[in-house]
Design brief:
The protein is of the alpha/beta class and about 170 residues long. The chain has a domain at about 10-50 and about 85-155: Cytidine Deaminase, domain 2, CATH 3.40.140.10. It is built from six helices and seven strands, in the order αββαββααβαβαβ. The chain has helices at about 10-20, 55-60, 90-95, 100-105, 115-125, 140-150, and strands at about 30-35, 40-45, 60-70, 80-85, 105-110, 130-135, 155. The strands form two sheets. A five-stranded mixed sheet has the order 2-1-5-6-7, with helices on both faces. The chain has a two-stranded antiparallel ribbon with strand order 3-4. Strand 6 (about 130-135), helix 6 (about 140-150) and strand 7 form a beta-alpha-beta unit. The chain starts with 7 loop residues before the first helix and ends in a 16-residue tail after the last strand. GO terms for molecular function: dCMP deaminase activity; zinc ion binding.
Length: about 170
Amino acid sequence: MTSLRKDWDTYFMDIAFMVSTRSRCPRRHVGTVLVQGKKLLGTAYNGAPMGVQDCSEAGCMIVEEFEPAIAGSASTEMIKKQRCIRTIHAEQNLLLFTDRVDREGSVVYVTDQPCWTCANMLANSGIVEIVYYRPYSKDDGKVTSLMEQRGLLFRQLDNYVPPADTEVQDGS
């Protein structure tokens, strides 16, 4: 009996989801991996800085922000965004703990579509592709536009099923 082998996208996204289980954030577990060719170069997840109480210990530090629904338009429609400022995002941690030389030409697999700030950082990091699973609708339009302008491949995995017991369901 021969078993089917997972394709590379599924393999690396599974690893990103397993990495996300290290997060102690009660709102959302995010994991990311850096891959060059088929070689795994680094992993990271979202959480408080090292040596500082995390959200599960000290509570989330939520701030509310309002921004135009469509950046640069004359529309007055605003979007309310809530975010935790105690947490360093998984993508930011990945960039902090990997070398630029390793990122050149690499692919980032991340459980969630990057927010605007992380997308900006990734766009300048040397990577050539971002693969994600869960969308982040609050920043989708402007992040997609940035990736197109920058010439980076940016894609959501279709028909992907995360490993059992790796998703936080009550996120933001």
